Every structure is written in structure tokens, then in C-alpha cells.
Amino acid sequence: MILHAILTVAAVTVSSLAVAVFPRSVLAFLLFQGSLLFVYLARIPTWLRATLLGVALLVLMPLIGAYNGYYLEVATQVGIFVALALGLNIVVGLAGLLDLGYVAFFAVGAYTWAIFGSPHANVIFGGGFPLDPVWFYVFLLFGLLVAAGTGILLGLPVLRLHGDYLAIVTLGFGEVIRVLANNLDKPVNITNGPKGITPIERPPTLLGVSYGEYFYFLVLLIVGVVILVNRRLEDSHVGRAWEAIREDELAARAMGVPLVRMKLLAFACGASFAGIMGVVFSAKQVFINPESFTFLESIGVLAMVILGGMGSIPGAVLGATAVTVLNLQVLKGLSLWLNELKNAEVIVLGYNLANLPTQFEPAKYERMIFGMILVLMMIFRPQGILPARRRQRELAELATPNPRHVVATPP
Amino acid sequence: MLDWPLLIGILPQVVLDGIILGFMYALIALGYTMVYGVLEFINFAHSEIFIVGAFVGVEIMLGLKSAGLLEALPWPLILLLVLAAGMAASGALAVVAERVAYRPLRGAPRLIPLISAIGISFFLQDFIRLVESLWRNAFNLVYPTIEPLNHRFELTTTIDVSVKALVVIAAALGMLWLLHALVNRTRVGTAIRAVAEDQAAASLMGINVNRIISLTFLIGGAMGGAAGVLFGVQYGLINPYTGFIPGLKAFTAAVLGGIGNIPGAMLGGLVLGLLEAFAASYLSLLTGGAFGAEYKDIFAFSMLILILIFRPRGLLGEVVRERA
Hints:
The structure holds two protein chains of two kinds.
Chain A: H1 2-21, H2 26-41, H3 46-67, H4 69-94, H5 103-116, H6 121-125, H7 135-158, H8 163-183, H9 211-235, H10 237-247, H11 249-254, H12 259-285, H13 295-308, H14 313-343, E1 347-348, E2 351-352, H15 366-380, H16 389-399
Antiparallel strand pairs in A: 1-2
Helix pairs in contact in A: 1-2, 1-3, 3-4, 3-9, 4-9, 4-12, 4-13, 4-14, 5-7, 5-8, 5-12, 7-12, 9-12, 10-12, 13-14, 13-15
Chain B: H1 4-9, H2 11-39, H3 46-66, H4 69-72, H5 75-102, H6 111-136, E1 141-142, H7 147-150, E2 152-154, E3 160-162, H8 163-185, H9 187-197, H10 199-204, H11 209-235, E4 237-238, H12 244-257, H13 262-286, H14 296-310
Antiparallel strand pairs in B: 1-4, 2-3
């Protein structure tokens, strides 16, 4: 225990120093992130864990951001995806409703602020826009509500569907939202089509911090609230009802779980997290277009939930962090490194790297990564890296063969 | 108000386009429906198995072109060769995907193989891109034109039909007839139907269930591959991500016809193809340009949602059993 305590403190200190000394090294920043995971997993007293994580996230991370602003951007992106993964985790992990169009809710939140927080709304309403940037805070709530409403709107017609049919319909719904965003520039120009909306207002920052730091802290705050809400929900009667629905809908109904209300609540809750982050996202990016809300993003968020472990809150956080960092840092780093090697005409095994085709770029193979995560996790560790306890037991039960399911095969 | 002569004048062309599209969907939908019939599982990667057929086809045609054989050989021979290769590649790929990613998950909760299939689908998209990037340094490929195929017969001044379209329709009809004969007239077909009916009982009757499942993937994949080649010949441009939307629509067609039902898939494909062609041509004319052809995808997906809600068994399907 004491050894662990010393090790964790050392790990955080050394890795943050490493980032300070080598601000451009991706490896150093990965080390810093790894040390946070170590703090979470190590056997140390709760107060020490809380202090270390608090110091790292509230003090060290902004400091690192001062050395290299890109890392703060990465951390903010991670936070946004953590909230998305936690939202999808409610729908998929807890309630067992596979939603393949989740990013649609993110889009709804983003467009809510983008339309009213930019001069674009003048096209629809005549004049008086953009709204005063202070409205941003109202729209955080408003975006959340609109997304939750959209969630219920999607939930209502699909209540009767199960499993894979539900998955396909949500996929279709996600595509419908994207196509609408792409084409609703006529007859009334609502979304400005593929050109997207810009410039989107940002709220005034407090205490003179930079926008990088401002959005980092805002996202951190929202993620904190989301985690809190998630943990309270999980142990409430609502969370138990969701899990009952996931395990056996018929039995749950027999036990008096109100299926309709609980399923709609799951869709609404999951959607609301995406909605609020959508508002933040549109303000942070200043520009949004439908390209940010494709099926690829939905599957990316799903991969995060699966990687961490369906139904597990720490799992969703870890999954979102790992996948985002992989995309933003490891793959991009690999691309840059390969380009340097190409320019230097390095020869590997008698092959001149300068002859590599120009179209070959590791950064472009997100889908391959997501795909491999999904397949490998399903085959080798369906409960995820940090599994929820109940889920783990359930899958272990299935692994012991049930004589009724064995199909005799001739020799 | 409405320009009736124009609306009626384009009707035959719209129907023709719809039929071509419909046969394409029907061929792809067969892969979904056969696998669903046997395993009650949506093979999400089927859209990529379909586009792999198109890529194998374009590679062979480009190879023939650079060898100067594209003009020298008679075009039916080229087409047969390309179709056979595309079918073989897609069929083999479907079998491998089943072996690697689906078979270990048989008996797991229902969402797990579906997620694995989504993973395979995404993996394949970028894998095709990777291979083509390394091999050709391009992944948007265009089918080389075969001149005689582009010849158009003018039926009237406004309606014409190309040799290509006729070939696509004939090939699709041939495939569908072959499949129908295979499933209904041969011993293997009987075994496939038996496994779809009841795996345990089929295996007690001495049928090797795993072999039949592999065979189902092989046949479904081959049909997808054929559709891929025909898609390439008809529309020309392909890239690794092209398969996704036609795949989704073919799935819609399979559900429309009643998933698990082979004639249903053919019917569903044709109906969806026709509806989509109508939507693409008439939406903009009927709404005065407010909603254009780009809404045809929404049209197809909304239809999927409506069918699933109001008639989940589709046009020809049986009652969908509920599995715990």
C-alpha cells in the first residue's frame, strides 16, 4: 500500500516533468496519461487517489497546456468523448438498447447553438442575431433539453423493436439526421447545408483565462457532473430497472418495471449528455458542418464503450480516453514520423521508404482501428477492459456450456 | 401547375432505372436474407463483401486493359470472367469472416455477433483502402469502359436503354434463377432449408451444420460479389466506402420482403428500387424543387422504420419469432 502510494506520486511527478522537459514528445504525454490510469488502479487510500487525480486534472494539465497548447486541445476532446461515451453507455450498457445513430443527438445539440449563436439565424428570423454570447449558458440547458426531446422522439416509434432491428433503425435515424443537416438549406435555409455554419459565438471567458483553458475547464466540469449523475442513476431504482430490461424484458415487465417509461428515459438521458456536449463543441469549434456527425463518429463512440466495458462508468472513461488519444496522437504521430522517414529516404530491409505511395497515411485508418477494437473485444473480452461487475458475472455464466444449447455435430 | 406530359413522359425511363437498381438490391439482399434465415443474425459486413466484388472486378478489368486485352477479347467473355472472379472473392471473404468473427460468438447474447460484424465492416472498408493505396496509390477507381456495352437503343426520342442495362438485368435474373434452383431443387438446398428450420434437428438428420452455414455465407457472398461487379459496370465509380449505403438499402429490401425469405428478398429489392427511382425523379418535380433527389435516402430509411414498426414480418415473411 505504501509502496503503491509512493509509486503513484512518483509516476505523476516524473511524467509531468517529462512533458515539461519534452513538450513536443507524444510519448511523454502518453506517459502522463498512463500515470493517471495507474493512480486509478493502484491500491492507495481514497483521499490520496482523489488528491492526485484532482491535482493532475486541475493544476498539472493546464500547466502542460501552457507548454504545448495542443495537449490541452487533446484533453478537451477526450472530455467531450468521455461525456458521449457515458451517455451511450446508459443506452447500450445499462438498458441494452444498441444505438448506432448516437451522434445524431450530438448534432442536434451542436446545431441548436450554432443556429442561434451565429448570424445564420437572421436568414430564418429576419434579424437580431447572433444572440448575446451570455446566452451560451442558457443554451447548454436548452441543447440538453432539445436532444433529450429528440431522444424521446426516436424512442417512441422504436419501443416495440428488439436487438438488431433496433440497431438498424437507430442507424437509419442517424443517417436521416445527417442527410437533413446536409440538405435543409432549402426551401428554408436552416442548417446552411454542407457548407456548415460559422462563425459561432463563444461565451466571454472568466478571469481572463485563454479559450483553450476555458473550454478545458468547462468540459471537465460537465464531465464531472455527468459522472456524478451516472453513478447516482446506476444505483437508483431507474438504473436497476434498466439493467432488468437489458437482462430479460419479459421478466422485467412481469416484475412491474414500466417498460415504456424506462426505455424512453434511457434514450432521453443518453441523448441529453450528447446534447450538452454538442453545444460546447459548436462553440469550441466556431464552425460546424454535417461532416462532424457521420456514422463513423457513432461507431467510434460505440467502440469506446465496448473497449472499456459495457455498463461500466470507469470503462467508458478509459475507453473514450484510449480511443481519442489513439486517433489524435498515436495515429497522427505515426503519420508524421513516417513522413519524416520518407523525406529522409530511409531504407528499411532494402526498401526505400520514399517509394511509399502518397495515399498511404496511417492517420486515415480510423475505421480499421475501430473495427479491430470491436471484433477483438467481442471475441476475446466482451466484458471490456474495466468491466462492470454484474456484466462480468453474466458473461461468465454464458461461458459455461448449457446442455440445452449444444448442437450435436457428426464426427 | 404540374407538367403532366413531362411527368408521364419520363415514366418508362424511371421504371427502367428502378428495375436495374431493384435487381442490384435484390442480389445484395439475398446475402442478408440467407444468413438471417440460417443464423438469425444481421451480417453487417455484407455491404463490404459486396464492394470487394466490385474492386476485384475493376482490378481485373484494369489489368486486362493494360495488357491490351480489353479490346481484343469479346466482351461477354470479359464480363463472365470478371463476374466469376468477383463472386469467388466475395464468397471466400464471407466464409472467412464467418469463420474468424462470427463462429466463435455463436450462442453469445444477440448483440455481440452484431457488434463484431460492424467491426468487420469497418475493418474491411479501410483494409480495401489500404491495399488499393499501396497497390495503385488511389482508392477511387473507375471501371474502364467497354464500348459495345455503352451502345444505346433509342426506343423513342425520350427513352433509351443501353446494352449495359440489359446485360445487368439479364445477369441478375440468371443469378436469381440459379439460386432459386439451388435452394429448392438440390440436396444441398434441402440441407440449407433444414438448417434454417431447426439446427438441432438438422444435425440429428446427419447434416453438418457448420458446413451448411459456411456454404450459406459462400452463396450469399458470391451473390453480393456479382452485384458488386454489376454495380461497377453500371455506375462506374467505386471507392471503399461506396458499399455502405447500397448495403443498408439492400438490408431494407430484405426486411421489406420478409427477412429470411428468399423470394421476399427479390421482391423487396425490386419494390425498393422502383420506389427509390420514383422518389429520385419525382420528388423535385412534385414539390416544385423544394425537396430534391437527395431525399431519396431518407425516403428509403423512413420506409425501413415504418415497415419494422407496422409489419415487421415484411411482405412475404412469416411471423418473426422472439428469441430471449
